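Two records follow; treat each independently.
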Amino acid sequence: MKKIILKKASMLLFASILIFFSGCFKKDVMVDTADDVEEAVIMDVNGEKFLVVKEEIFQATSKESGRGLTRTSGYVEYRISTYDLNTGNLVKRIDLGEREDNNHYFLGPANGKLWYVSCDKEIGLHARDPKTLEIVVSQNEIFNINEHLRDNLPHPKYYEYRKYYGLDKSLDILMVSDNTGFVFYLDPVSLKTQKTDKSIVTYRYDETAKTTSMQFDSETYLNLSGEPRKTLKVKSKDYPELSFLDGNFMFSTTKLSLSEINPDFLAPIKREIDKYMKNLDSLNKLYDELKTIGISESDYKLRSVYYNIESAKRNLKQKEDELERNYISNSVIVSDDRGFFIIHKSNATDTAKVIISKIVLDENLIPSKKWDTYIPDVFYDPGKVVEKDGFEYVFSKGSPDFNTVRILYGDSKLIYIFMLHAVCLNSKNGNILWNIEL
């Protein structure tokens, strides 16, 4: 009798274990959908354009429910995926493994390559081809040119790499620290290093995605204000015919390259720089002429020209600094036809979908709407929908984060990543070119 009871107890325990773990299945990193998105960049490889995304896979090991909450525990794995920008088709994908073993910290894109440093010291600092994701610059190649970095690169916890590695986007040059904390510029072409007293500059891929105010160029400010519909305002003038339910301007979540920045944005500053440079050249020429004819340095006229030169240098430096600040901080998306994008909701319900609109400013700063595009499969506020009936997701596989947003612009295409979907719009007519689940 005792043996029978023990046997039944063992069977019950085994059944309980099966029930507990039956809700947790290991995801296939190379096939299953992602649970979150890290960096996303548009890259050009010999004229071909690609979207490269680092995707997180959460492997659930256990879950428990109680008091209306579900808690899932597990570990994180990563993969990198390359998609054709024209079609959305998957071109290449690599499995990076677990975060603690082989996390690839992204320094940024430079010289047409993707630069990473891996937790795996054998892989370490390297660059990958955006299309094939093969390593095209190895750590050994870097060490062979920079012996002072061999066995001298920091390998901290995965979340501390940003303190020691980065990219100065304004110079398009990598930044690395040695184990003593000294910082070096690393040229992505020659691979040569140069010591600098500058602090590490982090390449940001998660900048603000939307806001109710924007600077169209260095002299024109736009706003969206009002409730519940927000009205477009250009230089303090309202345009009530252009209003949007919970409307926001769309910004790139990565800093734009110089070629992607609206040329009108920097034009006024560049004109000022050109004016100061011409003035400085004229003053220097006058100063040299006065000295040539024997004017003494103590002479009032020569001293006056000297002071004007110093003043012109200061003015030029101020404008050059302003240009650099505007370049470094610029994530405002403006298309070639002076268009910008507004994201808003379809209605006031919890299940509202996303609408994206394009507005164009003419030369007289008069705005007009070019198109509206309804985005399928994407809720404006997924947090309000998850708890509702009809919203289905297999939580037993992974732990999805539906709130991560990435917005990119390039090659006349607007990329909107949200709710683990990537949607590509033709910025000229608003047509959806492709819509994929990551």
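The next record belongs to a different protein.
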Amino acid sequence: MKQLDDLHEKIAKGQIDLDLRNAIADRIVEFIEQNKASLGMWEKFHLGQSISALGTINSSDDQPLDTWFKLSLLSLEKAMVPEGERGEENEDIDEKVNSVTYEMLVGALGELKTN
């Protein structure tokens, strides 16, 4: 996906700022919106990981931010893997992930963007 490649390039160039975080959050929202009727356990798990990595950026002053941005993007990319190409049988994902809703994912992103 070209938009994600552009974001990876910004990280590689050290262009790490709030705009980058918001751009990643926007890509997550776009994916969630496009797939809201069919978000399965795989997507919810990896989207949650991506959102969590973005949230860590707020509270990790002593850690390299590029790592958290990379983790967020990699998790988003993993969420986008088509069903036939996944290794779900190798994923050890708790059933609690199934309780994650569209509203919860979008709400978490909304909170990140306002902080």
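Discussion point: The two ends are 28 Å apart (CA to CA). How would you locate this feature using only the token line?
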